Amino acid sequence: MAIKFSKTFLLRKLHQLTGIVPLGLFYFVHLYTNSAALNGPKVFNDHVQDIHNMAYLLFIEIFGIFIPLLFHSVYGILISAEAKPNVLGYGYARNWFYVFQRATGIFLFVFLLFHILNFRFGLIPGLNMTPVAGNADQAYAIVSREFQIVWVLIFYFLGVIATAWHLAYGFFLFAVDWGIVIGEKAQSILLKASLGLAVFLSLIGINAAIAFVRPCGLLPKALCEEPRLTTPTPPKKV
Ligand code: HEM
């Protein structure tokens, strides 16, 4: 009998768990770092440098990001291949959400492959060949140069929106499937909160992307502060 990946209990639970920790957690940190671009190149580059100053960074990347991401993506694609969408028969919101969750997952596989090769490794000929890793002082310039290209910027808007949906609805599915939120009313409130979170994360992500082509993103410039270059005052003689 052929294995049904969508019905394999332990792997399915591991798939859900890797989506929340570490990947979901990573994405919140990543949005925070990207949003530093609102305050200009120096602030963003310093945030990137801080990450690269972390001890054990390579191990954190391999075991905390790349391996969970690879497992989550490949297993997610296997589950999606077994999907039986029924939106044509029953056009309820939850049927559509089922389709969106799978569609965003497949899109994110392509987007993230491009994104990681482009920025982390600088391996997209014709686009960027300077990795951000090891060149934190050029991080803002590298991203900003890419985002001047209209299709790249649009691709990122789509990537950010797809991530926001996939993660926020993923929280809902996780809470329901792990028996954390059980009652019908509680699930309905959680679903609305998840959709709100998807909108919120999309707006923050889009604004962070725009901050690489326009200072302070979509916000009025007065709300963002570039660091002032002050010379340290010498200690007073007593
Ligand atoms: C505004 C949009 C985004 C910008 C400006 C951005 C920027 C960057 C940069 C500069 C890096 C290289 C970091 C380094 O080498 O230190 C990176 C890596 C990465 N990004 Fe993004 N990113 C964006 C959206 C996303 C989205 C939507 C995801 C989806 C989850 C994502 C996931 C990742 C991952 C998994 C890595 C590799 C992490 C690592 O190697 O440490 N990014 N991003």
- Looking at CATH, the homologous superfamily is Fumarate reductase/succinate dehydrogenase, transmembrane subunit
The protein's oligomeric status is: single chain
Strand residue percentage: under 5%
Instruction: Give me the Rg, rounded.
Output: 21 Å
The CATH first-level class comes to Mainly Alpha
CATH fold topology: 3 helical TM bundles of succinate and fumarate reductases
Helix percentage: 55-70%
Order of helices and strands: HHHHHHH
**Associated small molecules:** protoporphyrin IX containing FE
Which regions are unreliable across 5 or more consecutive residues at pLDDT < 50?
none
Q: Compute the number of strand runs.
A: 0
Provide key terms for this protein.
mainly alpha; 3 helical TM bundles of succinate and fumarate reductases; 66% helix; 0% strand; binds protoporphyrin IX containing FE
Structure commentary:
By secondary structure, the chain is mostly helical. The chain has a single domain (7-213), classed as Up-down Bundle (3 helical TM bundles of succinate and fumarate reductases). The protein has helices spanning 9-35, 41-52, 57-81, 93-120, 139-147, 150-177, 184-210. Helix 3 packs antiparallel against helix 4 (93-120) and helix 4 (93-120) crosses helix 6 (150-177). The longest helix is centred in the middle third of the chain and has 28 residues, at 93-120. The protein is globular, with a radius of gyration of 21 Å. The relative contact order is 0.12. It binds protoporphyrin IX containing FE (HEM). Protoporphyrin IX containing FE is lined by residues 27, 30, 34, 48, 51, 61, 65, 69, 112, 115-116, 119-120, 132-133, 139, 143, 156, 159-160, 163, 205, 208-209.
